[in-house]
Amino acid sequence: MTEPLLTVRDLKKHYPIRKGVFNRQVGAARAVDGISFDIAEGETLGLVGESGCGKSTAASSIIHLEEPTSGEVVFNGNGREGATRNPDGSHPNDVTEFSDEELKEFRRGAQMVFQDPSSSFDPRMSVGNAVGELLKVHGMSDRHRRRAIVEDLLERVGLSASDFDRYPHEFSGGQKQRIALARALVLNPDLIIADEPVSALDVSIQAEILSLIDDLQDEFGLSLLFISHDMSVIRQICDRVAVMYLGEIVEIGPVEEIFTNPQHPYTEALLSSIPTPDPRASVGGIELKGTVPSPTNPPSGCRFHTRCHKVIQPDGVDVDQDDWRGLLNLRDKINTGEIDVEQVRENVAASGTEPTDSEVQAEIRREFDIGETIDDPELEETLTEAMNLLLDDNAEMAGEFLSDEVTTPCAQTEPSKTAHASDHESACLLHEDRASAEPNPADD
Ligand SMILES: Nc1ncnc2c1ncn2[C@@H]1O[C@H](COP(=O)(O)OP(=O)(O)OP(=O)(O)O)[C@@H](O)[C@H]1O
Prior knowledge:
Blueprint: E1 6-19, E2 24-39, E3 44-48, H1 55-62, E4 70-75, H2 100-109, E5 110-113, H3 127-137, H4 143-156, H5 173-185, E6 191-195, H6 203-220, E7 223-228, H7 231-237, E8 240-245, E9 248-254, H8 255-260, H9 265-272, H10 321-335, H11 341-350, H12 357-367, H13 377-391, H14 395-405, E10 418-419, E11 425-426, H15 429-437
Parallel strand pairs: 3-7, 3-8, 5-6, 6-7
Antiparallel strand pairs: 1-2, 1-4, 8-9, 9-11, 10-11
Helix pairs in contact: 3-4, 3-5, 4-5, 5-6, 10-14, 11-12, 13-14
Bound molecules: adenosine-5'-triphosphate.
């Protein structure tokens, strides 16, 4: 088997949080928290997730714009192919251990393209010089040769050689992104990391740039790590995709497989958010509510459990799944003191006369998508009791009451990876249950 061009293993980037006059570290933002994947030669791997999932931090740690906290990034390009591990287990191609000289060499072979093409150019430098600058930095002193290389590249990205002497403000956003691609290609790299390269562009221009990236990849035999929050963009350009949530990869696999047979509820939710021209298709769609929690204090167990539509019910409980999600949300909001009963009372009163307690309770149920009765009498009783306490101004006890019974295994156990089809893995407790339920041929 040929070796991957890039191997990332258990990569972490934690930003220390400091406070006080002594600037003591009081915690850490675990922006990237142990991600692993490979990228083969000529392959495009997508990294997808909502804003704040850690995609950009992963990119800058891989390319060593930032020092990772731990983990390994093995880059087998730049003539470093075929290297084997040292007797002490370290790898000679581990970027995280590179010397300054090796890092300079690495930067020839691995380039980055950023989201905003406008801010990545010096307005006072002609685009030809901006593209050719890297050649100069890397020792090409012949000005004519540099110019010939850059003019050729400008043509290959769909501009013209005569654009060499023009300035960034003379170009549109899409054209600037073409120039950024020319600049990334000028040192003939093996790997390009593109961080949301089309999200700042109009949709019509996005398609042109994606198609250009696709063509350049074939022409230059590039490997790509393509970062996007947009699943439809990922589908157009990637061979495989890694889905990232709160610093972790929750699912990885071939694009077609992930789109037709997603396994992780987070992937399902991201896919469900793709706009479709058919209005009926969104019926029954999964709404991803709220935002990604802070990486300074990620949820225990499965990090997605606080937003998951498939969050598991404990043994002995079997209620409507929407009711279950609502109960967990209600429990959390009561525990964080975020339910303002007086405000709810006022809201209900606004639509008529002074509301009764049961009207206020009904409104709270509605806000949390909890049905009129839960089909588990014991749980219904617990909820009613908790609501009574809440309306009696005893939120603390209401929270405790609910917390005793409304619990999920997803908050207790960190899911491990489950393999599905070849090269397709996800990390969700639901799959672990299913895997253990499947008959093991060895038991026969
Ligand atoms: N220098 C920093 N110090 C502390 N926290 C940081 C730092 N940089 C990023 N973070 C946090 O790390 C998390 C991941 O950020 P990151 O920018 O990598 O996410 P992202 O998925 O790329 O999102 P976006 O698309 O919005 O950039 C966020 O919660 C962010 O606030």
